[in-house]
């Protein structure tokens, strides 16, 4: 029989590494929101996460960059939704189903996005995460819509989806809320708006 770790789930060591990165990110956001970014050190984050400073540097390249796993989790979720979606289908149903796995992270993620509007270092991480995501979305959209790899229209459609979701999350965060059901409504509305650009056939 095959190794269970290869059947649809990352190996245990990879899951542990991912969880450690998330715990560091959560600890960083907690400290950033209570103390401020400037008053928080790498040593503070490591202590709050229950790890050594040496371990911190194994998982992050700086205190601002340490929050990135909270951002990429949502991006990975959307990439998965796009990979299953086909033109003409209701993407919001697939989004709702996939998003349930990240409900617990919503308050922390929203707090981070809110901070990113004021802190330039966190803003850079937020924008870089979306910049990287756009290429992932473009490849995923090209496959799901039958377009060739590197297709320009897939890139444009990826930019539309990426921009719509980023705008929706920022709009929600500005309202000072952190409830998943409300955020889901805002993101669904943005996705529905973005999906209107997918009415064209490949090559059109």
UniProtKB/TrEMBL annotation:
Keywords: DNA-binding, Transcription, Transcription regulation. Coiled coil: none annotated. It comes from the Bacteria. SUPFAM superfamilies: Homeodomain-like. InterPro entries: Homeodomain-like_sf (IPR009057), HTH-type_TetR-like_transc_reg (IPR050109), HTH_TetR (IPR001647), MftR_C (IPR041347). Residues 41-60 bind DNA. Residues 18-78 form the HTH tetR-type domain. It holds the Pfam family TetR_C_14. The keyword DNA-binding applies. The keyword DNA-binding applies. This is AcrR family transcriptional regulator. It comes from Amycolatopsis magusensis.
């Amino acid at each position: 029989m095959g190794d269970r770790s290869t059947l649809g789930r990352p190996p245990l060591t990879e899951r542990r590494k991912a969880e450690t990165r998330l715990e560091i990110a959560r600890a960083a956001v907690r400290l950033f929101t209570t103390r401020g970014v400037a008053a928080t050190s790498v040593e503070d984050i490591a202590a709050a996460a229950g790890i050594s400073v040496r371990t911190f540097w194994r998982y992050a390249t700086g205190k601002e960059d340490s929050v990135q796993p909270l951002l990429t989790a949502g991006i990975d979720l959307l990439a998965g939704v796009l990979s299953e979606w086909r033109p003409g289908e209701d993407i919001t149903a697939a989004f709702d189903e996939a998003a349930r796995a990240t409900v617990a992270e919503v308050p922390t993620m929203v707090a981070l996005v809110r901070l990113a509007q004021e802190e330039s270092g966190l803003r850079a991480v937020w924008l870089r995460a979306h910049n990287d995501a756009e290429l992932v979305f473009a490849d995923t959209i090209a496959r799901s819509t039958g377009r060739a790899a590197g297709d320009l229209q897939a890139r444009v459609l990826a930019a539309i989806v990426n921009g719509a979701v980023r705008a929706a999350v920022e709009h929600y965060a500005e309202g000072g809320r952190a409830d998943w059901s409300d955020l889901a409504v805002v993101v669904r509305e943005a996705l529905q708006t973005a999906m209107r650009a997918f009415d064209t056939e490949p090559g059109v």
